[in-house]
TrEMBL record:
Gene3D superfamilies: Nucleotide-binding domain of ferredoxin-NADP reductase (FNR) module, Translation factors. The lineage of its organism: Eukaryota, Viridiplantae, Streptophyta, Embryophyta, Tracheophyta. Transmembrane segments: none annotated. It comes from Brassica napus (Rape). InterPro entries: FAD-bd_FR_type, Flavoprot_Pyr_Nucl_cyt_Rdtase, FNR, FNR_nucleotide-bd, FNR_plant_Cyanobacteria, OxRdtase_FAD/NAD-bd, Riboflavin_synthase-like_b-brl. This is Ferredoxin--NADP reductase, chloroplastic.
Amino acid sequence: MSHSAVSQAAAVSVSIGNERSLTRSVFKVIPPFSLSLQLPIFSITFLEICLLDFLIASEFDLKPSFACVVSIFILQQNNSISFNTKPWSSSLALTQKTSTIRDAKRYSNTTICMSVQQASSSKVNVSPIELEDPTDPPLNLYKPKDSYTAKIVSVERVVGPKAPGETCHIVIDHDGNLPYWEGQSYGVIPPGENPKKPGAPHNVRLYSIASTRYGDFFDGKTASLCVRRAVYYDPETGKEDPSKNGVCSNFLCDSKPGDKIQITGPSGKVMLLPENDPNATHIMIATGTGVAPYRGYLRRLFMENVPNYKFGGLAWLFLGVANTDSLLYDDEFSKYLKDHPDNFRFDKALSREEKNKKGGKMYVQDKIEEYSDEIFKLLDNGAHIYFCGLKGMMPGIQDTLKRVAEERGESWDAKLSQLRKNKQWHVEVY
Ligand code: FAD
Protein backbone atom coordinates (compact mmCIF):
# COMPACT_ATOMS: atom_id res chain seq x y z
CA MET A 1 0.00 0.00 0.00
CA SER A 2 1.03 3.59 -0.38
CA HIS A 3 3.11 5.40 2.19
CA SER A 4 0.26 7.72 2.96
CA ALA A 5 -1.46 8.39 6.21
CA VAL A 6 -4.70 8.70 4.41
CA SER A 7 -4.57 5.39 2.64
CA GLN A 8 -3.30 3.73 5.80
CA ALA A 9 -6.42 4.83 7.58
CA ALA A 10 -8.67 3.72 4.76
CA ALA A 11 -11.39 1.24 5.56
CA VAL A 12 -12.00 -0.01 2.01
CA SER A 13 -9.27 -0.04 -0.56
CA VAL A 14 -9.23 -1.50 -4.06
CA SER A 15 -5.96 -1.44 -5.95
CA ILE A 16 -5.41 -1.96 -9.64
CA GLY A 17 -1.88 -2.71 -10.86
CA ASN A 18 1.15 -3.02 -8.68
CA GLU A 19 0.04 -2.59 -5.07
CA ARG A 20 3.39 -1.41 -3.83
CA SER A 21 3.83 1.12 -6.58
CA LEU A 22 4.21 4.71 -5.53
CA THR A 23 3.46 5.87 -9.06
CA ARG A 24 -0.21 5.98 -8.51
CA SER A 25 -3.21 8.20 -8.47
CA VAL A 26 -5.72 7.79 -5.72
CA PHE A 27 -9.35 8.73 -6.02
CA LYS A 28 -10.93 9.15 -2.65
CA VAL A 29 -14.62 9.20 -1.94
CA ILE A 30 -15.12 11.46 1.04
CA PRO A 31 -18.48 11.11 2.71
CA PRO A 32 -21.10 12.26 2.25
CA PHE A 33 -20.87 13.39 -1.40
CA SER A 34 -17.51 14.90 -2.10
CA LEU A 35 -14.74 13.43 -4.17
CA SER A 36 -11.08 14.13 -3.81
CA LEU A 37 -8.49 13.48 -6.48
CA GLN A 38 -4.92 12.80 -5.43
CA LEU A 39 -2.22 13.37 -8.02
CA PRO A 40 0.70 13.11 -5.68
CA ILE A 41 3.78 12.49 -7.69
CA PHE A 42 3.50 12.51 -11.42
CA SER A 43 1.51 14.39 -13.99
CA ILE A 44 -1.71 13.34 -15.68
CA THR A 45 -2.21 10.31 -17.87
CA PHE A 46 -4.77 9.19 -20.34
CA LEU A 47 -6.32 6.88 -17.73
CA GLU A 48 -6.74 9.73 -15.28
CA ILE A 49 -8.47 11.81 -17.92
CA CYS A 50 -10.81 8.89 -18.66
CA LEU A 51 -11.62 8.36 -15.00
CA LEU A 52 -12.29 12.01 -14.35
CA ASP A 53 -14.27 12.19 -17.60
CA PHE A 54 -16.47 9.32 -16.42
CA LEU A 55 -17.01 10.84 -12.98
CA ILE A 56 -17.88 14.30 -14.34
CA ALA A 57 -20.11 12.92 -17.11
CA SER A 58 -22.14 10.83 -14.69
CA GLU A 59 -22.33 13.41 -11.92
CA PHE A 60 -23.32 16.37 -14.10
CA ASP A 61 -25.10 14.34 -16.75
CA LEU A 62 -22.82 15.67 -19.47
CA LYS A 63 -21.86 14.11 -22.77
CA PRO A 64 -18.59 12.16 -22.32
CA SER A 65 -16.85 14.19 -25.03
CA PHE A 66 -17.68 17.48 -23.27
CA ALA A 67 -16.79 16.03 -19.89
CA CYS A 68 -13.46 14.91 -21.36
CA VAL A 69 -12.61 18.49 -22.38
CA VAL A 70 -13.58 19.67 -18.89
CA SER A 71 -11.41 16.91 -17.36
CA ILE A 72 -8.32 17.85 -19.33
CA PHE A 73 -8.85 21.49 -18.47
CA ILE A 74 -9.18 20.71 -14.77
CA LEU A 75 -6.21 18.39 -14.65
CA GLN A 76 -4.05 20.88 -16.50
CA GLN A 77 -4.96 23.66 -14.10
CA ASN A 78 -4.06 22.76 -10.54
CA ASN A 79 -5.55 19.33 -10.02
CA SER A 80 -8.34 20.88 -8.05
CA ILE A 81 -12.09 21.19 -8.55
CA SER A 82 -15.14 22.11 -6.50
CA PHE A 83 -17.81 19.47 -6.46
CA ASN A 84 -21.09 19.46 -4.53
CA THR A 85 -19.70 22.40 -2.55
CA LYS A 86 -16.72 20.26 -1.40
CA PRO A 87 -13.36 20.59 -3.04
CA TRP A 88 -11.54 18.06 -5.18
CA SER A 89 -7.97 18.65 -4.31
CA SER A 90 -4.44 17.42 -4.87
CA SER A 91 -2.82 15.06 -2.39
CA LEU A 92 -0.88 17.90 -0.82
CA ALA A 93 -4.02 19.87 -0.15
CA LEU A 94 -5.65 16.75 1.25
CA THR A 95 -2.64 16.14 3.43
CA GLN A 96 -2.98 19.62 4.85
CA LYS A 97 -6.64 19.02 5.50
CA THR A 98 -5.93 15.74 7.19
CA SER A 99 -2.87 16.83 9.09
CA THR A 100 -4.09 15.19 12.26
CA ILE A 101 -4.63 11.50 12.50
CA ARG A 102 -8.19 12.04 13.69
CA ASP A 103 -8.98 14.09 10.61
CA ALA A 104 -7.27 11.57 8.36
CA LYS A 105 -9.48 8.84 9.74
CA ARG A 106 -12.58 11.01 9.44
CA TYR A 107 -11.92 11.74 5.79
CA SER A 108 -11.05 8.20 4.90
CA ASN A 109 -13.99 6.05 5.78
CA THR A 110 -14.48 4.99 2.19
CA THR A 111 -11.61 4.91 -0.21
CA ILE A 112 -11.32 3.68 -3.73
CA CYS A 113 -7.61 3.42 -4.43
CA MET A 114 -6.29 2.88 -7.92
CA SER A 115 -2.70 2.29 -8.89
CA VAL A 116 -1.94 3.77 -12.27
CA GLN A 117 1.41 3.54 -14.02
CA GLN A 118 2.16 7.10 -14.99
CA ALA A 119 3.64 8.00 -18.32
CA SER A 120 5.35 11.18 -17.31
CA SER A 121 8.16 11.66 -14.81
CA SER A 122 7.66 15.26 -13.78
CA LYS A 123 8.98 15.97 -10.31
CA VAL A 124 7.02 16.88 -7.20
CA ASN A 125 7.14 20.42 -5.86
CA VAL A 126 8.18 20.63 -2.23
CA SER A 127 7.60 23.14 0.53
CA PRO A 128 8.55 25.02 2.59
CA ILE A 129 11.55 25.87 0.45
CA GLU A 130 13.05 27.62 3.52
CA LEU A 131 14.24 24.16 4.53
CA GLU A 132 17.00 24.75 1.97
CA ASP A 133 18.16 27.99 3.62
CA PRO A 134 20.42 26.96 6.51
CA THR A 135 24.07 26.50 5.61
CA ASP A 136 24.59 23.89 8.33
CA PRO A 137 22.46 20.84 9.06
CA PRO A 138 20.19 20.88 12.12
CA LEU A 139 21.89 18.98 14.96
CA ASN A 140 20.61 17.62 18.29
CA LEU A 141 17.63 19.96 18.53
CA TYR A 142 16.14 17.55 21.06
CA LYS A 143 18.21 15.60 23.58
CA PRO A 144 17.38 12.47 25.64
CA LYS A 145 16.41 14.51 28.70
CA ASP A 146 14.30 16.90 26.62
CA SER A 147 12.96 14.76 23.78
CA TYR A 148 10.27 15.78 21.27
CA THR A 149 6.89 14.08 21.40
CA ALA A 150 5.96 13.19 17.85
CA LYS A 151 3.07 11.12 16.51
CA ILE A 152 3.01 7.97 14.43
CA VAL A 153 1.26 8.55 11.11
CA SER A 154 1.56 5.07 9.63
CA VAL A 155 3.36 1.76 9.99
CA GLU A 156 3.59 -0.39 6.91
CA ARG A 157 5.26 -3.76 6.42
CA VAL A 158 7.40 -3.31 3.33
CA VAL A 159 8.68 -6.83 2.70
CA GLY A 160 6.91 -9.75 1.09
CA PRO A 161 5.77 -12.97 2.81
CA LYS A 162 8.94 -14.90 1.95
CA ALA A 163 11.31 -12.36 3.49
CA PRO A 164 13.09 -13.65 6.57
CA GLY A 165 12.02 -11.26 9.31
CA GLU A 166 9.95 -8.13 9.13
CA THR A 167 10.84 -4.61 8.05
CA CYS A 168 8.46 -1.68 8.41
CA HIS A 169 8.26 1.77 6.87
CA ILE A 170 7.18 4.15 9.62
CA VAL A 171 6.03 7.70 9.00
CA ILE A 172 6.30 10.09 11.94
CA ASP A 173 4.56 13.46 12.22
CA HIS A 174 6.90 16.08 13.75
CA ASP A 175 4.79 19.00 12.58
CA GLY A 176 7.86 20.77 11.23
CA ASN A 177 9.53 20.95 14.67
CA LEU A 178 12.28 18.39 14.07
CA PRO A 179 13.87 19.37 10.75
CA TYR A 180 16.68 17.21 9.40
CA TRP A 181 18.74 16.70 6.29
CA GLU A 182 18.99 13.60 4.13
CA GLY A 183 21.44 11.12 5.66
CA GLN A 184 20.81 12.10 9.28
CA SER A 185 19.31 9.90 12.01
CA TYR A 186 16.66 10.33 14.67
CA GLY A 187 16.94 8.85 18.14
CA VAL A 188 13.92 7.02 19.55
CA ILE A 189 13.32 6.45 23.27
CA PRO A 190 11.00 3.46 23.62
CA PRO A 191 8.42 3.69 26.41
CA GLY A 192 9.05 1.81 29.64
CA GLU A 193 11.80 1.37 32.14
CA ASN A 194 15.43 0.62 31.43
CA PRO A 195 16.00 -2.88 32.86
CA LYS A 196 19.61 -2.01 33.57
CA LYS A 197 18.74 1.26 35.37
CA PRO A 198 15.49 0.82 37.36
CA GLY A 199 13.40 3.98 37.34
CA ALA A 200 15.25 5.43 34.34
CA PRO A 201 13.95 5.48 30.76
CA HIS A 202 15.35 3.20 28.06
CA ASN A 203 18.47 4.25 26.21
CA VAL A 204 18.06 6.04 22.89
CA ARG A 205 18.17 3.88 19.75
CA LEU A 206 19.25 5.54 16.51
CA TYR A 207 17.47 5.11 13.17
CA SER A 208 18.56 6.48 9.80
CA ILE A 209 15.91 8.74 8.32
CA ALA A 210 14.54 7.26 5.10
CA SER A 211 12.82 10.37 3.73
CA THR A 212 14.04 13.70 2.43
CA ARG A 213 13.78 16.80 4.59
CA TYR A 214 10.33 17.33 3.06
CA GLY A 215 9.08 13.94 4.23
CA ASP A 216 6.88 11.53 2.34
CA PHE A 217 4.12 14.14 1.99
CA PHE A 218 6.53 16.78 0.63
CA ASP A 219 5.43 19.34 3.25
CA GLY A 220 8.35 19.27 5.72
CA LYS A 221 6.21 17.87 8.53
CA THR A 222 7.05 14.18 8.61
CA ALA A 223 10.06 11.88 8.72
CA SER A 224 10.14 8.22 7.78
CA LEU A 225 12.13 5.35 9.25
CA CYS A 226 12.87 1.91 7.87
CA VAL A 227 12.98 -0.46 10.83
CA ARG A 228 13.76 -4.15 11.03
CA ARG A 229 12.05 -5.92 13.89
CA ALA A 230 14.75 -7.47 16.12
CA VAL A 231 13.57 -10.96 17.07
CA TYR A 232 15.50 -13.32 19.34
CA TYR A 233 15.71 -17.03 18.56
CA ASP A 234 17.07 -19.37 21.20
CA PRO A 235 20.21 -20.89 19.64
CA GLU A 236 19.51 -24.27 21.24
CA THR A 237 15.81 -24.74 20.52
CA GLY A 238 15.62 -22.44 17.47
CA LYS A 239 12.39 -21.06 18.94
CA GLU A 240 11.56 -17.37 19.30
CA ASP A 241 11.94 -16.00 22.84
CA PRO A 242 9.75 -12.86 22.94
CA SER A 243 11.21 -11.80 26.31
CA LYS A 244 14.50 -11.15 24.50
CA ASN A 245 13.12 -9.44 21.41
CA GLY A 246 14.48 -5.97 20.63
CA VAL A 247 12.67 -3.31 22.65
CA CYS A 248 12.63 -0.31 20.35
CA SER A 249 12.28 -1.99 16.96
CA ASN A 250 9.30 -3.99 18.24
CA PHE A 251 7.77 -0.88 19.79
CA LEU A 252 8.10 0.91 16.43
CA CYS A 253 6.84 -1.94 14.26
CA ASP A 254 3.88 -2.56 16.61
CA SER A 255 2.89 1.10 16.96
CA LYS A 256 -0.37 2.42 15.56
CA PRO A 257 -1.36 5.68 13.86
CA GLY A 258 -1.76 8.36 16.52
CA ASP A 259 0.62 6.76 19.03
CA LYS A 260 3.08 9.13 20.69
CA ILE A 261 6.79 8.64 20.22
CA GLN A 262 9.75 10.31 21.95
CA ILE A 263 12.35 11.51 19.47
CA THR A 264 15.84 13.00 19.83
CA GLY A 265 18.16 14.47 17.25
CA PRO A 266 18.59 14.82 14.41
CA SER A 267 22.14 13.53 14.52
CA GLY A 268 24.99 12.59 12.24
CA LYS A 269 27.02 14.35 9.60
CA VAL A 270 28.97 11.53 8.00
CA MET A 271 26.16 10.47 5.66
CA LEU A 272 25.07 13.93 4.56
CA LEU A 273 24.71 14.14 0.79
CA PRO A 274 27.47 16.45 -0.46
CA GLU A 275 25.67 18.87 -2.72
CA ASN A 276 28.43 21.26 -3.71
CA ASP A 277 28.76 19.47 -7.07
CA PRO A 278 25.37 18.62 -8.64
CA ASN A 279 27.17 16.46 -11.21
CA ALA A 280 28.98 14.27 -8.67
CA THR A 281 28.92 10.48 -8.61
CA HIS A 282 27.44 8.79 -5.53
CA ILE A 283 28.08 5.06 -5.06
CA MET A 284 25.73 3.79 -2.35
CA ILE A 285 26.22 0.40 -0.75
CA ALA A 286 23.61 -1.03 1.59
CA THR A 287 22.55 -4.20 3.29
CA GLY A 288 18.93 -4.39 4.45
CA THR A 289 17.70 -1.31 6.30
CA GLY A 290 21.02 0.35 5.43
CA VAL A 291 19.14 1.48 2.33
CA ALA A 292 17.24 4.02 4.46
CA PRO A 293 19.45 7.08 3.91
CA TYR A 294 19.72 6.27 0.18
CA ARG A 295 15.94 6.32 -0.18
CA GLY A 296 16.13 9.90 1.11
CA TYR A 297 18.98 10.80 -1.26
CA LEU A 298 17.27 9.27 -4.28
CA ARG A 299 13.96 10.99 -3.65
CA ARG A 300 15.87 14.28 -3.47
CA LEU A 301 17.82 13.50 -6.65
CA PHE A 302 15.02 12.07 -8.77
CA MET A 303 11.56 12.58 -7.26
CA GLU A 304 11.49 16.08 -5.84
CA ASN A 305 11.72 19.36 -7.64
CA VAL A 306 14.22 21.23 -5.46
CA PRO A 307 14.89 24.62 -7.07
CA ASN A 308 18.46 24.98 -5.77
CA TYR A 309 19.59 21.41 -6.47
CA LYS A 310 19.30 19.94 -9.94
CA PHE A 311 21.14 16.65 -10.05
CA GLY A 312 22.98 15.80 -13.26
CA GLY A 313 25.50 13.27 -11.98
CA LEU A 314 25.38 9.52 -11.37
CA ALA A 315 23.82 7.70 -8.42
CA TRP A 316 24.66 3.98 -8.25
CA LEU A 317 22.94 1.84 -5.64
CA PHE A 318 24.15 -1.62 -4.57
CA LEU A 319 21.62 -3.31 -2.32
CA GLY A 320 22.18 -6.63 -0.58
CA VAL A 321 19.20 -8.51 0.90
CA ALA A 322 18.22 -12.15 1.37
CA ASN A 323 15.71 -12.63 -1.45
CA THR A 324 13.33 -10.86 -3.80
CA ASP A 325 10.68 -10.51 -1.09
CA SER A 326 13.20 -8.68 1.10
CA LEU A 327 13.87 -5.93 -1.45
CA LEU A 328 13.07 -2.51 0.01
CA TYR A 329 11.52 0.37 -1.92
CA ASP A 330 12.07 -1.58 -5.13
CA ASP A 331 9.23 0.13 -7.00
CA GLU A 332 10.64 3.58 -6.32
CA PHE A 333 14.13 2.57 -7.39
CA SER A 334 12.91 0.75 -10.50
CA LYS A 335 11.00 3.85 -11.52
CA TYR A 336 14.17 5.96 -11.29
CA LEU A 337 15.94 3.38 -13.47
CA LYS A 338 13.24 3.72 -16.08
CA ASP A 339 13.04 7.50 -15.97
CA HIS A 340 16.70 8.38 -15.41
CA PRO A 341 18.74 5.62 -17.09
CA ASP A 342 21.72 7.95 -17.61
CA ASN A 343 21.82 9.08 -13.99
CA PHE A 344 20.87 6.01 -11.98
CA ARG A 345 22.22 2.48 -11.74
CA PHE A 346 20.84 -0.19 -9.43
CA ASP A 347 22.45 -3.55 -8.65
CA LYS A 348 20.96 -6.07 -6.26
CA ALA A 349 22.60 -8.98 -4.48
CA LEU A 350 20.11 -11.60 -3.31
CA SER A 351 22.13 -13.88 -1.05
CA ARG A 352 19.56 -16.67 -0.79
CA GLU A 353 18.57 -16.67 -4.45
CA GLU A 354 21.70 -15.92 -6.43
CA LYS A 355 25.16 -17.43 -6.62
CA ASN A 356 28.42 -15.54 -7.03
CA LYS A 357 30.96 -16.57 -9.63
CA LYS A 358 32.54 -19.05 -7.19
CA GLY A 359 29.19 -20.76 -6.60
CA GLY A 360 28.73 -19.24 -3.13
CA LYS A 361 26.00 -16.90 -1.91
CA MET A 362 25.74 -13.58 -3.73
CA TYR A 363 26.64 -10.81 -1.30
CA VAL A 364 26.93 -7.12 -1.98
CA GLN A 365 30.75 -7.36 -2.11
CA ASP A 366 30.43 -9.84 -4.99
CA LYS A 367 28.53 -7.21 -6.95
CA ILE A 368 31.18 -4.64 -6.04
CA GLU A 369 33.85 -7.02 -7.34
CA GLU A 370 31.91 -7.51 -10.58
CA TYR A 371 32.06 -3.76 -11.26
CA SER A 372 35.34 -3.05 -9.49
CA ASP A 373 37.11 -1.55 -12.51
CA GLU A 374 34.36 0.99 -13.02
CA ILE A 375 34.10 1.70 -9.29
CA PHE A 376 37.83 2.30 -8.93
CA LYS A 377 37.83 4.63 -11.95
CA LEU A 378 34.89 6.58 -10.56
CA LEU A 379 36.62 6.86 -7.17
CA ASP A 380 39.78 8.10 -8.88
CA ASN A 381 37.62 10.77 -10.50
CA GLY A 382 36.22 11.95 -7.16
CA ALA A 383 33.12 9.76 -6.65
CA HIS A 384 31.67 9.55 -3.15
CA ILE A 385 31.16 6.07 -1.73
CA TYR A 386 28.73 5.32 1.11
CA PHE A 387 28.25 2.20 3.24
CA CYS A 388 25.24 1.69 5.47
CA GLY A 389 23.77 -1.36 7.18
CA LEU A 390 24.88 -4.04 9.56
CA LYS A 391 28.45 -3.81 10.87
CA GLY A 392 29.13 -7.29 9.55
CA MET A 393 29.02 -6.05 5.97
CA MET A 394 32.27 -4.07 6.21
CA PRO A 395 34.98 -6.75 6.60
CA GLY A 396 33.86 -8.63 3.46
CA ILE A 397 33.64 -5.41 1.46
CA GLN A 398 37.02 -4.12 2.69
CA ASP A 399 38.65 -7.47 1.83
CA THR A 400 37.21 -7.34 -1.67
CA LEU A 401 38.32 -3.74 -2.23
CA LYS A 402 41.79 -4.55 -0.92
CA ARG A 403 42.12 -7.57 -3.20
CA VAL A 404 40.94 -5.61 -6.23
CA ALA A 405 43.37 -2.77 -5.42
CA GLU A 406 46.25 -5.24 -5.17
CA GLU A 407 45.29 -6.85 -8.49
CA ARG A 408 45.47 -3.37 -9.98
CA GLY A 409 48.89 -2.83 -8.43
CA GLU A 410 47.62 -0.24 -5.97
CA SER A 411 47.95 -0.03 -2.20
CA TRP A 412 44.48 -0.18 -0.64
CA ASP A 413 45.69 1.44 2.57
CA ALA A 414 47.05 4.44 0.67
CA LYS A 415 43.90 4.64 -1.44
CA LEU A 416 41.63 4.45 1.60
CA SER A 417 43.46 7.20 3.45
CA GLN A 418 43.27 9.37 0.32
CA LEU A 419 39.51 8.74 0.02
CA ARG A 420 39.07 9.64 3.70
CA LYS A 421 41.20 12.76 3.33
CA ASN A 422 39.15 13.84 0.30
CA LYS A 423 35.89 13.21 2.25
CA GLN A 424 34.80 10.70 -0.39
CA TRP A 425 34.41 7.82 2.11
CA HIS A 426 31.19 7.71 4.19
CA VAL A 427 30.45 4.83 6.58
CA GLU A 428 27.54 4.35 8.97
CA VAL A 429 27.20 0.77 10.15
CA TYR A 430 25.50 -0.58 13.25
P1 FAD B 1 17.50 -4.10 21.85
O1 FAD B 1 16.44 -4.21 22.85
O2 FAD B 1 18.49 -2.99 21.97
O3 FAD B 1 18.26 -5.49 21.74
C1 FAD B 1 19.38 -5.62 20.88
C2 FAD B 1 19.49 -7.06 20.43
O4 FAD B 1 19.72 -7.90 21.56
C3 FAD B 1 18.21 -7.59 19.77
O5 FAD B 1 18.56 -8.33 18.65
C4 FAD B 1 17.58 -8.45 20.85
O6 FAD B 1 16.79 -9.50 20.27
C5 FAD B 1 18.79 -8.97 21.58
N1 FAD B 1 18.52 -9.29 23.01
C6 FAD B 1 17.69 -8.66 23.85
N2 FAD B 1 17.74 -9.24 25.08
C7 FAD B 1 18.62 -10.25 25.00
C8 FAD B 1 19.11 -11.22 25.91
N3 FAD B 1 18.71 -11.26 27.18
N4 FAD B 1 20.03 -12.11 25.46
C9 FAD B 1 20.46 -12.09 24.19
N5 FAD B 1 20.02 -11.20 23.27
C10 FAD B 1 19.12 -10.29 23.67
N6 FAD B 1 18.02 -0.18 12.74
C11 FAD B 1 17.05 -0.29 11.81
O7 FAD B 1 16.23 -1.22 11.85
N7 FAD B 1 16.94 0.66 10.83
C12 FAD B 1 17.78 1.71 10.71
O8 FAD B 1 17.65 2.55 9.80
C13 FAD B 1 18.80 1.83 11.70
N8 FAD B 1 19.67 2.86 11.66
C14 FAD B 1 20.66 2.96 12.58
C15 FAD B 1 21.55 4.03 12.51
C16 FAD B 1 22.58 4.14 13.41
C17 FAD B 1 23.54 5.29 13.30
C18 FAD B 1 22.71 3.16 14.43
C19 FAD B 1 23.82 3.27 15.44
C20 FAD B 1 21.83 2.12 14.54
C21 FAD B 1 20.78 1.99 13.61
N9 FAD B 1 19.85 0.94 13.68
C22 FAD B 1 18.87 0.84 12.72
C23 FAD B 1 19.87 -0.05 14.78
C24 FAD B 1 18.94 0.42 15.92
O9 FAD B 1 19.48 1.58 16.54
C25 FAD B 1 18.73 -0.62 17.01
O10 FAD B 1 20.00 -1.02 17.48
C26 FAD B 1 17.96 -1.84 16.60
O11 FAD B 1 16.66 -1.48 16.14
C27 FAD B 1 17.77 -2.81 17.78
O12 FAD B 1 17.20 -2.11 18.84
P2 FAD B 1 16.09 -2.78 19.77
O13 FAD B 1 15.78 -1.82 20.85
O14 FAD B 1 14.99 -3.31 18.98
O15 FAD B 1 16.86 -4.02 20.37
